[in-house]
Design a protein that fits this description.
The structure holds 2 protein chains of 2 kinds. By secondary structure, chain A is an all-alpha fold. Chain A is built from 3 helices and no strands. In chain A, about 30% of the residues are buried. In chain B, about 40% of the residues are buried. In chain B, strand 1 and strand 2 form a beta hairpin. Chain B is mostly helical. Classes of the chains: A mainly alpha, B mainly alpha. At the A-B interface, helix 1, helix 2 and helix 3 of A face helix 25, helix 26 and helix 27 of B.
């Protein structure tokens, strides 16, 4: 029973990713696409969690954490790129 | 041992010459160099009695025994003739060069090259091992190249040197192939051992190939038709070089090869036909063309070509003796070979003297153009005498040695023509006719050489005070013409001591030495040969008198149809074609290079699998596929396809990120946590790096490729992708060997770690990890360099230069 529910959840998450992909490809503006990427990251995170339940292992807990951090960093980098055109700014006094 | 020393002396001297030149700048270096040929001559002289008795001398030094290569110095009659010529003429040429070249020239270079050449030439005639012979053979080509281009500031010298190098080295390499074929047949590189097996070789399938390859080598070196074209251009060399290399020694290396290999190849009829008729054609063509030359050295060059053809054809006629039993009635056929050797010596004497005389004229009058010279007889009486004697000998008139060899040549030609017609096609009847016609032309150009230079009134003589050359320059040609006359007086002494032992080298299975040595007499009664000579003189004088009337025929042949024109055109076309082919694939476009890589991948790998029916798609043993996995693969695929059509770089980066993240979830599904972690981090860093770079890139431009190219690129990409997938699927079921992963399963006992992946990376296969760390290190240093140490403004751009 629990396995079926978890499988169903995985299916739903992957459908969510497909929808996000549509936004990432179609998205009229760049921020739409970046948000789509961020959402995909979060959905993947959830999928990893469910898979680790299914596989009955704790080996993927780091993956979940890293995925959270990285999708955050990625979104920040994109945002800064959109905002300023550069990611790492030089110091103004140089 | 002493013979081995004879080869070494010139090379050792060549080493010493630059030292001498540096430490004793005032000293005339030529006198020092003169020691080398004299020493060799001395060593050879001590062997003459032994060789004349039919014995041989041999010394072996193992060089590369595992490959059957040894420096075997083998001195028999044939080597004796050539080595005496090399060292004897060499000594005279150096003596002449001492006075000919001014001390302002780069004399140390000159003598160094000359000694190298002399040593290489001695090596060629002494070597019994074919590989060593080939090495020395190429060394003669190289040193000749250096000598021809001695005045390398002149364009013509460089052209001549390049041409001779190209032709002789091509021939040399062909000859190497011939030697290797011979080795394949006999299993030995030794010429003597090959001769021992010769009688059974001639129906070997490789025999004809080896024969032709060796002959091409000999023909190119000896300037036989149609490879003779390099010799006239080599006349840009200093005159001592022309006298030494291009009349007496190097061009006779091919003659030597033909004489040396006659016992091996003469059992086949091909040898007889090729050597005889190529020789005869060269004889006629060379003498015919010599008449039209206006440069004295070019005239002598064509004369050399024709005389070499004469010697070559005589060797060919002599090889007929291999097809008959040698006894007193057929000895006339071996006589042809004897005449070849006799004329070889004679030609070296008179042609050397003539070249030196022409050099003197050039040196004193400042030109060697026939149209500007004339009336030098009273100004340069000694040079005149030398030239007349040399020319008369060349034309085959008594009382000089050329007469004897010409008479003997005619009798050999007549003997060949009268060979039983049942065994040979009647084309041999042409032999004496061709010989006779060529002799007429020889007579004509000899007349031109003497009459146009020394008689007639001086027309446009250069504005210098012409006087006789200094005595130092005259010594060498005087010695040579005294030989010309001396050999006429005592031909049988030369024949007995020098020439007849060589007959044993060419006919090892034949009769005795005494039997094969004909008695040469100047007066041999009124016979056909004498009438032929008289005919030559009469026809020659008439044609010479009428020369202005028929000279026009030389202009009939259009210039681009001459052999020289064809050679130049072939070179030009070869360059064109090769650059065209190169431009076909070296386009400078990365896109096309990738195209070639992919096509080769498709053709070779895909083709191999397709031809061997190795594609194998069985779906058994596959793991079950979940619906969400299918959806994820679909997402990744859709992102990848969408990436091809996006219009901004950032969108492409986003899609790339989706593929990367998707990959990491597959690592999770397939239970690889370490890979998933690394993949996530690398993906994020790559994304950030992409964004970092975009700031500096110019605006995104859509490719404007023609749609045909786009479709072709698409087809190739799809084909490559499908091939790779097909191969991966086929390989999946390859389970002939057990996997080695079971070994790593007890990582805890072996390496003390529970994480198998990390124990493999850090313990079992740590070398890979170390080197990958090095890769990262190099990459980071490279990035630092490119960013911080990039070129200042205005620096040289080395890229795309």
């Amino acid at each position: 029973m629990i396995k079926a529910v978890l499988g169903l959840a995985l299916l739903f998450f992957s459908i969510t990713i497909v929808i996000c992909l549509y936004r990432a490809i179609k998205g009229p503006t760049l921020p739409d696409r970046v948000i789509a990427l961020d959402t995909i990251g979060v959905n993947l995170l959830s999928m990893v969690a469910i898979i680790s339940l299914l596989q009955e292992t704790t080996a993927y807990l780091e993956v979940i954490l890293i995925l959270g951090i990285l999708s955050f960093i990625g979104t920040i980098a994109f945002s800064k790129f959109i905002e300023r055109g550069v990611i790492i700014e030089r110091k103004s006094d140089r | 041992m002493t013979i081995f020393l004879a080869i070494c002396i010139p090379f050792l001297m060549a080493l010493l010459v630059p030292l001498m030149y540096t430490f004793f700048p005032k000293f005339k270096i030529g006198w020092f160099v003169l020691i080398a040929p004299l020493a060799v001559l001395g060593i050879l002289a001590s062997y003459i009695p032994k060789i004349a008795g039919g014995q041989t001398a041999i010394y072996t030094y193992d060089w590369v025994p595992s490959l059957g290569m040894s420096i075997t110095v083998y001195l028999d009659g044939l080597s004796m003739i050539f080595s005496l010529l090399i060292s004897g003429v060499g000594a005279l040429v150096i003596l002449y060069a001492i006075h000919y070249l001014s001390s302002k020239e780069a004399l140390h270079h000159f003598y160094c090259y000359l000694l190298l050449f002399m040593g290489a030439m001695l090596g060629v005639v002494f070597s019994d091992n074919m590989m060593v012979l080939y090495a020395f053979w190429e060394l003669t080509s190289v040193s000749s190249f250096l000598l021809i281009a001695f005045w390398h500031h002149r364009h013509a010298s460089r052209t001549g040197a390049r041409k001779s190098m190209l032709i002789t080295v091509t021939g040399g390499i062909t000859m190497l192939i011939g030697f290797l074929l011979l080795h394949e047949m006999t299993g030995t590189f030794s010429i003597r051992k090959t001769i021992e097996q010769a009688a059974i070789l001639y129906d070997h399938p490789l025999f004809i190939g080896a024969l032709i390859c060796v002959l091409i080598g000999a023909f190119t070196k000896s300037a036989q038709f149609p490879f003779h074209i390099w010799l006239p251009d080599a006349m840009e060399a200093p005159t001592p070089v022309s006298a030494y290399l291009h009349s007496a020694t190097m061009v006779k290396a091919g003659i030597y090869i033909v004489a040396r290999f006659t016992p091996i190849f003469a059992y086949g009829w091909t040898w007889f036909w090729l050597v005889t008729f190529v020789g005869l054609i060269t004889l006629v063509w060379g003498s015919f063309n010599a008449v039209k030359q206006t440069d004295l050295k070019a005239l002598l060059a064509f004369s050399t070509i024709s005389q070499l053809g004469l010697i070559m054809s005589l060797l060919g006629m002599g090889s007929f003796a291999y097809h008959v039993q040698i006894d007193t009635s057929t000895i006339i056929y071996t006589q042809a070979t004897f005449v070849a050797l006799f004329h070889l010596v004679n030609h070296s004497t008179f042609k050397g003297a003539l070249f030196m005389a022409v050099g003197i004229i050039d040196h004193e009058a400042g030109t060697r153009d026939i149209r500007r010279l004339g009336g030098l007889m009273s100004l340069m009486p000694i040079t005149f005498t030398i030239t007349v004697i040399g020319s008369m000998s060349m034309a085959g008139l008594p009382p000089f040695n050329g007469f004897l060899s010409k008479e003997l040549f005619f009798s050999s030609a007549l003997a060949t023509a009268s060979i039983d017609m049942t065994s040979l096609p009647s084309i041999v009847a042409l032999v004496p006719i061709m010989a006779w016609v060529a002799s007429i032309f020889t007579f004509i150009y000899s007349c031109i050489l003497v009459v146009k230079t020394f008689f007639e009134s001086p027309k446009k003589l250069p504005d210098v005070k012409i006087h006789e050359a200094p005595i130092g320059m005259l010594i060498s040609p005087i010695i040579l013409v005294s030989f010309v006359f001396g050999i006429f007086l005592f031909p049988n002494t030369l024949a007995k001591y020098i020439l007849s032992p060589a007959m044993l080298s060419i006919y090892p299975q034949g009769a005795s030495q005494e039997m094969m040595t004909p008695h040469i007499s100047a007066w041999h009664g009124f016979n056909t040969e004498l009438w032929m000579t008289i005919g030559v003189v009469v026809a020659g004088i008439i044609l010479f008198k009428l020369l202005p009337k028929w000279k026009g025929i030389y202009n009939r042949l259009p210039k681009h149809l001459t052999l020289n024109g064809l050679f130049n055109r072939a070179l030009y076309e070869a360059e064109n074609v090769s650059s065209f082919i190169t431009r076909l694939y070296m386009t400078g476009s990365l896109r096309q290079y990738m195209l070639f890589v992919y096509i080769v991948l498709l053709g070779v790998v895909g083709g191999y699998f397709a031809l061997n029916d190795a594609f194998n798609f069985s779906m058994d043993n596959n793991a079950p596929i979940h619906i969400y996995e299918v959806i994820l693969v679909g997402v990744m695929g859709a992102a990848a396809i969408a990436m091809l059509f996006v219009s901004s770089r950032v969108t492409a980066t986003v899609l790339n990120g989706i593929i990367g993240y998707g990959l990491s979830i597959f690592f999770v599904i397939f239970r690889a946590p370490d890979l998933a972690l690394t993949q996530l981090i690398v993906e994020s860093v790559t994304t950030v790096l992409f964004l970092l770079c975009f700031t500096y890139l110019p605006a995104w431009k859509k490719d404007r490729l023609p749609s045909r190219t786009k479709i072709m690129n698409g087809i190739i990409s799809v084909a490559v992708g499908m091939t790779v997938v097909a191969i991966s699927l086929s390989v999946l079921h390859f389970n002939e060997f057990k996997t080695i992963s079971s070994y790593f399963e007890n990582a805890y006992e072996l390496a003390g770690g529970k994480n198998i992946v990390n124990t493999i990376l850090g313990d079992f296969r740590a070398f890979d990890t170390m080197l990958e760390v090095v890769v990262l290190c190099i990459a980071s240093i490279g990035v630092y360099q490119m960013i911080r140490l990039r070129m200042k403004k205005g620096g040289d751009r080395h890229e795309n230069k």
